[in-house]
């Protein structure tokens, strides 16, 4: 399953990370819709708003279905046929949609039939492993393996907002297959766009943590086919829904257990029993470098603050959390591993 994610990148950085080529082969950036509704967070839970990719044809008649937009949507699909005035009164959980039963459930079958396919964006997602013989659980942060680039090696020079954004341009966001729907309040008002994340059986690498995982679209071709409902049928698109082994993870602090906690500590590797069986990955080392970079200056001190203005936006505001402190946590974790012989990466089971 998938019940918690992190998506803290600024709007500009997230758009650049989602660059694509349209049907003519032209490189483009997806256009934001309702960008003011996007609130970056290290700890997103159902009913919060998260960014999703969708075909421009869903929002503009006559548009090329290969073109994309990014729009914040409510996590937890509210079916278009729901008749109550308050969407929170929906009696069943729609934050996830099982791939093996979605054609049996009206809430998911209808939007799929209308081509309402989307890609949910995140830095990664969290999952909790139950420790055998106890009531305790160990949270993990799960994400795409990150590739070291020439840009990422020169991160120490990130002194200003533009440099800071380039640092995060190297992060590959997780792209999860989803469905969305549009609900109109029965008494009138703005339409509510909401989504669900499709889940599949876990891959072998994650099976010891949890038996379900999001359906991850690994690569531009998969993302393009899933979004382009104008050219790719639902039957063909569903062939993309399967587990992927191209994933990495590390244990994180129980700080993430409370969805109100919204700091970089949520996704930092921790010193724990689990740690001793994990090799310090290049992705974790890269995260250490990023968090060690200077805090950027504000771009616009006059910009109005949103309800979640305390969320570190990395490219446009200072974080109340000390990134140096976060880097120190990672550095201690990596130093303790330095003298140990690396072993195969697998979750700890007791």
From TrEMBL:
DNA-binding keyword on record: yes
UniProt subcellular location: Chromosome
CC terms in the record's Gene Ontology section: chromosome
Top-level EC class as recorded in UniProt: hydrolase
Superkingdom in the source lineage: Eukaryota
Main location: nucleus
Entry keyword set: Autocatalytic cleavage, Chromosome, Covalent protein-DNA linkage, DNA damage, DNA-binding, Hydrolase, Isopeptide bond, Lyase, Phosphoprotein, Protease, Ubl conjugation
EC numbers, comma separated: 3.4.-.-
Annotated region described as Disordered, given as residue ranges: 293-327
Gene Ontology terms describing biological process: protein-DNA covalent cross-linking repair; proteolysis; somatic hypermutation of immunoglobulin genes
Protein known as: Abasic site processing protein HMCES
Originating species: Monodon monoceros (Narwhal)
């Amino acid at each position: 399953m998938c019940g918690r994610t992190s998506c803290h990148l600024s709007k500009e950085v997230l758009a650049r990370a989602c660059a694509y080529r349209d049907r003519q082969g032209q490189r483009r950036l997806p256009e934001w819709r309702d960008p003011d509704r996007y609130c970056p967070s290290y700890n997103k839970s159902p009913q919060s708003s998260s960014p999703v990719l969708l075909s421009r044809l869903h929002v503009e008649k006559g548009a090329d279905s290969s073109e994309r937009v990014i729009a914040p949507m409510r996590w937890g699909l509210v079916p278009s046929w729901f008749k109550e005035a308050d969407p929170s009164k929906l009696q069943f959980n729609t934050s996830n949609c099982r791939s093996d039963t979605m054609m049996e459930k009206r809430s998911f079958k209808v939007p799929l039939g209308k081509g309402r396919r989307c890609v949910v964006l995140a830095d990664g997602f969290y999952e909790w492993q139950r420790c055998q013989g106890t009531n305790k659980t160990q949270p993990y942060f799960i994400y795409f393996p990150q590739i070291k680039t020439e840009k990422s090696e020169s991160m120490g020079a990130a002194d200003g907002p533009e440099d800071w954004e380039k640092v995060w341009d190297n992060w590959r966001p997780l792209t999860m297959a989803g469905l969305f729907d549009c609900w109109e309040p029965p008494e009138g008002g703005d339409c509510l766009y909401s989504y669900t994340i499709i889940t599949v059986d876990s891959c072998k690498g994650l099976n010891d943590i949890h038996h379900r995982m999001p359906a991850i679209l690994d690569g531009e071709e998969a993302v393009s086919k899933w979004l382009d409902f104008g050219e790719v049928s639902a039957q063909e698109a569903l062939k993309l829904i399967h587990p992927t082994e191209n994933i990495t993870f590390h244990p994180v602090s129980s700080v993430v257990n409370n969805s109100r906690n919204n700091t970089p500590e949520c996704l930092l590797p921790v010193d724990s029993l689990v740690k001793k069986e994990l090799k310090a990955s290049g992705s974790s080392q890269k995260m250490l470098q990023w968090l060690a970079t200077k805090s950027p200056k504000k771009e616009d001190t006059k910009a109005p603050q949103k309800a979640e203005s305390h969320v570190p936006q990395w490219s446009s505001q200072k974080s109340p959390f000390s990134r140096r402190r976060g880097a120190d946590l990672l550095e201690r974790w990596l130093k303790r591993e330095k003298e140990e012989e690396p072993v195969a990466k697998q979750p700890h089971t007791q």
